[in-house]
Amino acid sequence: MILYSTSVTGSDSVTLAEEIKKYKTKELVDFLSKEEDLELEKEDLEIIRKQRVNGRDFLKITEEKLEKWEMPGGPATRLVDFAKECKEKKLRAFSAYKTKKDLSEVLSKYEIVSGDITRIPQFIPRKIRNNQILFEKQQLKEWEI
Length: 145
Hints:
Elements: H1 16-20, H2 25-33, H3 42-50, H4 55-59, H5 63-68, H6 73-88, E1 91-92, H7 100-109, E2 124-127, E3 133-136, E4 143-144
Antiparallel strand pairs: 1-4, 2-3
Helix pairs in contact: 2-3
């Protein structure tokens, strides 16, 4: 399952690429490491880290570049295909579901099966540099279309 947050409201939608584009190298590596179907090994992710590939770079990645950086052919092909898929994939906010049934189906994927909204995990604020507040989600994840 993909982890990300969006600023989608109402019927608006953004592509996953628009979110990935904002990722710094560490965020990109973390994101890719959670994509189990890519079957990336530590060495594959280290190549991305060593080459300082950020989100914008990732969306333009080619097999030739990855292989030049000595990434094996299998992971290189999967990463290029995944980058292409990300450009087309639309994101959808939980608030965009029109019927209770639609919303219930999505919430059940995240093990929120009760009608009680108090069971939805809350954001946890924590301090980071420059006294900014970063909100993290515990369990809720944006659902992809």
